[in-house]
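Sat 14:20. Reprocessing the chain from the morning session after the first attempt stalled halfway. Input below, unchanged.
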Amino acid sequence: MPAIFAKSRDGFQLRLSFGYKGQAFFEVATPCVTKSDVAEPTSVPNGPAYPLGEIPTPNVRSAFWSAEVPVGGTGRGEGGGG
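Finished this time. Tokens:
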């Protein structure tokens, strides 16, 4: 399979390869980072603000994530959404 591999001095890596019938694969890898503190958000959430550890998993029906129509829309593509 034809491919190009690249790696920067600081550890970033790219791979571009082509498979059967020209199907392209693009992969990126980043170097490890050092842990740092993250500031609390300064804006109000535009969706539900779940308490820490209470975010619903994908197999749980949520009124927000499982909505039948886009937020602010009718489901016909003209929704204004957030």
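The longest strand covers residues 13-18.
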